[in-house]
Write a structure and sequence with these properties.
Oligomer: heterodimer
Helix content of chain B: 40-55%
Largest interface: A-B, 23 and 20 residues
CATH superfamily of the largest domain in chain B: Response regulator
Number of helices of chain B: 11
Order of helices and strands of chain B: EHEHEHEHEHHHHHHH
Strand order of the largest sheet of chain A: 1-2-3-5-4
Shape of chain B: globular
CATH topology of the largest domain in chain B: Rossmann fold
Shape of chain A: elongated
Strand content of chain B: 5-15%
Helix content of chain A: 55-70%
Strand content of chain A: 5-15%
Number of domains of chain A: 2
Chain lengths: 434, 211
């Protein structure tokens, strides 16, 4: 059954996909009613091969396990019975998705935003078809078709409203949204008018009046009895929704802990013999969890377009790549531009050098934006080196750091002594935003 | 003589881990995992240093620091937390903690920090130095109390080096001053952090949860 699809989703996604799944259920339900078929799975769609018109008959035949010509004969016969066959065919065509597409035409149309002109155009086309059918004689009777058409429009309005605001019908008492209330009332009026027309056209109105009065008396009595309950239902719905949001958040937390933390713990147990891997795993998990817990909306701590954000992600990359820890401290921030981007690249190079060559397991990254300039320091307490003794073939420091900073109007200095570690200082003239 | 240390943390695993890391370099005179019990036991045992967790049910480390501080001003506190959030850091420091280290600190560094706090100095991690620099950054707002609301150029310099990952000794060598002078500067900054009337200090801390 289509309904089980909803139940099978995980707790974390249930709340999120609830709306979509609901729509699907509704749609399959409509298909089942339209063609009287028990659809076990999402239907495979109207087949492209062996179709005569749009593949509806072929689809139904396939579902029922009977020859297509039988279905086609049935459709044709029904069409002569006042056009019912043609109408059914069109409805089925709208509701059954085409082979190879995930959703039906009706669903696509419902999801798409309509403007008013589009609705009017569709209404005109439908009217035209109705008139055409009337002219050609495939017609029940004026007294049947027109009331049905009016009622159908009313139903359409109500259904659309229920789709958009599922609780609009309950909320009428609260009258929170005047427009949606008006739409629902208008839809109901149209349906009532359609029924009334039907009765009037068939000279049954007089007879129905007595029954109608009795019915109205009963309905108003029931409404009086159930009004408080109805009002409470509205309130309960609101609190239920709040509860659902809360439990959804709890489920999300549980899912996150499960997905990331437990997985990492499992990985750590498996790699227990390798302290480097364990350290890297733990650090990555810590970073992830911290971002998730302390930064609202699972956004990264600093926007990616900022100096601090870019430096944080460069530091994270280095940690992941080389299994070292990078301690990032920042004072002030700036939006990235081309030169600052170059400084971030130079910082990446400096971090990589420190991670690969210094032998230190901890690297300090300090960035500061103050009046007039932005400065980045990368420092390790590793082995250090002799500046003049670097192989001229290795151009990392000269090109990627010093050369790059100079090209963008900045400066870079390297301070190092054997056994005392290395510090790379990069600076750019910049003005902090006010 | 080894400093007498008291541990407060609501996670027993952390207590055990910290005790193990401290080893024989300090005398652990007790531990507690609840705010009320901690206040009572600290008053009773009067340790030199209390290593205290920032986040605990019932008011957190801040409640303990404030309660003990009124009756036993000689007990020094070093905050130990997993949180890097600026508001937590600034809040415990302003409550009276002499320093702030994160739980990822290495064993030797932690022992060093405890000894430093026991000796009356302040412990500034690079991150804390960064927070302070940021909080005391020059801004157009009028200074209420010049003595506490601004940092001297030298203090700024010292903090900047600490933020860059320099140890106190390395800072001293870099600025050609004595380690004692570095400690004096850092303690002065700590006092300013605690006493400054800059009302934006608290707001600053709540504005940015992470740097």
């Amino acid at each position: 059954m289509a309904g089980t699809r909803v139940l099978r989703t995980t707790p974390a996604t249930r709340g999120l996909t609830f709306g979509a799944a609901n729509r699907q259920v509704w749609e399959y339900g409509a298909v089942i009613h339209a063609v009287g078929v028990e659809a076990a799975d999402p239907p495979a769609g109207r087949p492209r091969r062996g179709r005569m018109v749009a593949g509806v008959a072929a689809w139904i035949a396939h579902r029922l396990g009977m020859p297509p010509w039988g279905v086609r004969v049935a459709f044709t016969a029904l069409t002569f019975a006042g056009g019912v066959g043609a109408a059914l065919y069109v409805v089925a065509w709208l509701l059954i998705p085409d082979e190879g597409t995930a959703e039906s035409i009706a669903r696509t149309a419902r999801r798409a935003r309509h403007d008013r002109r589009q609705v009017v155009a569709v209404a005109m086309v439908v009217l035209g078809i109705l008139l055409l059918l009337r002219q050609s004689g495939l017609w029940f009777d004026d007294g049947v078709v027109w009331p049905v058409a009016v009622a159908a429009v009313g139903l359409f309005v109500i259904w659309r409203q229920a789709e958009r605001r599922p609780h609009a019908l309950v909320r009428i008492t609260g009258a929170r949204d005047l427009r949606s209330t008006l739409r629902v009332v208008g839809g109901v009026a149209l349906v009532v008018a359609g029924v009334g027309l039907f009765l009037a056209a068939n000279q049954a109105l007089v007879a129905a009046r007595q029954g109608l009065l009795a019915t109205m008396a009963v309905v108003s009595g029931v409404a009086t009895v159930f009004a408080p309950w109805w009002a409470r239902l509205g309130r309960d719905l609101a609190s239920e929704r709040a509860e659902r949001i809360r439990s959804q958040e709890r489920a999300e937390l549980a899912a996150h802990i499960h997905d990331s933390v437990l997985q990492t713990l499992a990985l750590i147990q498996r790699n227990a013999h390798d302290p480097r891997t364990v350290g890297a795993l733990a650090r990555r998990q810590e970073r992830d969890l911290r971002t998730w817990l302390f930064v609202p909306d699972t956004d990264v701590s600093a926007p990616p377009g900022s100096l601090a954000g870019a430096l944080a992600s460069v530091a994270a990359e280095t940690e992941d790549h080389y299994g070292v820890s990078v301690d990032v401290v920042g004072v002030g921030d700036l939006a990235l531009d081309e030169a600052l981007g170059a400084m971030v690249s130079a910082t990446r190079e400096a971090l990589t050098n420190a991670a690969r060559h210094s032998g230190a397991t901890e690297i300090s990254l300090y960035a500061e934006v103050e009046e007039g300039q932005a400065t980045v320091f990368v420092r390790d307490k590793g082995c250090g080196f002799v500046l003049g003794a670097v192989d001229p073939g290795r151009r990392g420091v000269a090109e990627s750091i010093i050369g790059r900073m100079h090209r963008h109007g900045g400066e870079a200095h390297v301070r190092t002594h054997l056994g005392e570690g290395t510090e790379v200082e990069m600076s750019l003239p910049r003005w902090a935003p006010p | 003589m080894n400093p007498r240390v008291f541990l407060v943390d609501d996670h027993h695993l952390v207590l055990a881990g910290v005790r193990c890391e401290l080893g024989s370099a300090v005398d652990v005179v007790g531990e507690a995992s609840e705010v009320e019990a901690a206040i009572e036991m600290i008053r009773e045992r009067n340790p030199d240093v209390v290593l205290i967790d920032v986040h605990m049910p019932g008011g957190g480390g801040r409640a303990v620091i404030e309660a003990v501080g009124t009756t036993h001003p000689d007990v020094r506190f070093l905050a130990l937390s997993v949180s890097d959030a600026a508001e937590d850091v600034i809040a415990v420091i302003r409550a009276g903690a002499r320093g702030y280290v994160t739980k990822t600190i290495s064993g030797p560094d932690l022992i060093n920090a405890v000894q430093r706090v026991a000796g009356g100095d302040a412990v500034f991690s690079p991150r804390l130095a960064g927070f302070v620099l940021d909080a005391f950054a020059s801004d157009p707002q009028p200074v209420v109390d010049a003595q506490f609301d601004t940092l001297t150029a030298r203090e700024r310099e010292v903090l900047r080096l600490i933020a860059r990952g320099y140890s106190y000794k390395e800072v001293a060598a870099r600025l050609t001053i004595s380690t004692k002078t570095v400690e004096t500067h850092v303690s002065a900054v700590l006092r300013k952090l605690q006493l400054s009337s800059r009302h934006q200090l608290t707001r600053w801390a709540t504005d940015r949860r992470l740097v």
